[in-house]
Design a protein that fits this description.
With 346 residues, this protein is α/β, with parallel strands linked by helices. It folds into 2 domains: 250 residues, Aldolase class I (TIM Barrel, Alpha-Beta Barrel), CATH 3.20.20.70; 85 residues, Non-ribosomal Peptide Synthetase Peptidyl Carrier Protein, Chain A. It is built from 14 helices and 11 strands. It has an 8-stranded parallel β-sheet. The protein is globular and about 65 Å long. The structure holds flavin mononucleotide. Flavin mononucleotide binds next to strand 5.
Length: 346
């Protein structure tokens, strides 16, 4: 992504301009349309789908095709596909483009056994010829920007990442996201940001750094340490969509606002409503039994709330439980006030 001249935060991936350098990482099972809409509303410039099977798309699996569901409100949207067959990847990419996605991303980083043994995901980093065939076929199949998301490769040298980055650039790929952990590493240890710098120094297309962002200052540090063009944020955004608004505030030199309870509960309610619309009441409630708990981490009585939502079976029940918890917290604040006042008065 190249910073544009008038707004230093604006960045470009091929023909797509992002308002700022923050990007939501693809997270399997999490970054569906409802989640992406929550994230979008906190200022994230580019949201990404979870990885979608190219075979599933091409063979019209209804569950897979549903993952292409989008709305103009979340745009620009990047859709990630995975697979290992160049012709199928090209057909799947064309389907993604027809669905209205703004960017097509290819998964070169998934190190889960089930994926790697099919030759997809991180396996492509050690089969550069196959990787090149896929990139050429996909590039030919679509007009929208094509990006790839890679790891460091299969060993610490990161040579495979350097090689794939060069191949990608020569095939007309528009940007590369780098999660600098090796495939065998999974999510253990720390992300080696020096690999992001090394890739940035080797290619002329935009580089999006990724890995271990947990607070707004980390994004600022990654941008300045590695000179990457954008920063992709993953796990910390789960239950904490405000990482994007807070990061943006820091990038703009504005004060970072704490998230108050009211905002937290409004987002939880929105998440339920969107999820019910997206997948229907029963499946949405099943999901919310664990997901609502993400948003209350660290709040007083959160374990009681988590316990209470374990069996929710309707939207109205979920909303009632949220309301009850909200009131409990509000009462707690009111009870605390005289005590604090008293302490202060002494
Ligand atoms: C639950 C989960 C699901 C993930 N799914 C995907 C995926 O579908 N595609 C992908 O490229 N990376 C996936 N990743 C990797 C993330 O996109 C990201 O690279 C990684 O979490 C490191 O960034 P973070 O430290 O900000 O979380 C996943 C990670 C997690 C924890």
């Amino acid at each position: 992504m190249k910073a544009t001249s008038h707004n230093p935060l604006k960045v470009k991936i091929g023909s797509v301009t992002l308002e700022n350098p923050t990007v939501l990482a693809p997270l399997a099972g999490i970054t569906n349309l409802p989640f992406r809409l929550l994230i979008k509303s906190t200022g994230c410039a580019l949201v990404c789908s979870e990885m979608i099977s190219s075979n599933g798309l091409v063979y019209n699996s209804p569950k897979t095709v549903q993952l292409l569901c989008s709305t103009p409100r979340e745009k620009p949207l990047s859709v990630q596909i995975f697979g290992s067959d160049p012709a199928i990847m090209a057909d799947a990419a064309a389907m993604v483009e027809s669905s209205g996605a703004d960017i097509l991303d290819i998964n070169f980083g998934c190190s889960v056994k089930k994926i790697v043994k099919t030759g997809a995901g991180a396996a492509l980093m050690r089969t550069p010829e196959k990787a090149e065939s896929i990139l050429k076929a996909v590039r030919k199949a679509v007009k929208i920007p094509v990006t790839i998301k890679i790891r460091s490769g299969w060993d610490k040298s990161a040579d495979q990442a350097f090689n794939i980055a060069k191949i990608a650039e020569s095939c007309g790929v528009d940007a590369i996201s780098v999660h600098p952990r090796t495939a065998p590493q999974g999510f253990r240890g720390t992300a080696d940001w020096s690999v992001i710098t090394a890739i940035k120094n080797r290619i002329n297309i935009p580089v999006i750094g990724n890995g271990d962002i947990v607070k707004p200052g980390d994004t600022v540090a990654m941008l300045s340490d590695t000179r990457c063009d954008g920063v992709m944020i993953g796990r910390i955004a789960i239950g904490n969509p405000w990482i994007f608004s807070q990061t943006l505030a820091m990038l703009q030199g504005q004060p970072i606002l704490e998230v108050d309870h009211a905002t937290r509960f409004t987002v939880m309610v929105r998440y339920i409503r969107l999820s019910v619309q997206y997948s229907g009441e029963k499946p949405a409630c099943y999901l919310m039994r664990s997901r609502l708990g993400w948003f209350v981490k660290g709040l007083p009585h959160s374990s009681g709330f988590r316990e209470s939502i374990k069996h929710i079976s309707s939207e109205s029940e979920a909303l009632e439980l949220i309301d009850a918890y909200k009131h409990k917290l509000t009462r707690q604040v009111h009870q605390d006030v005289p005590k604090r006042f008293f302490d202060h008065a002494i």
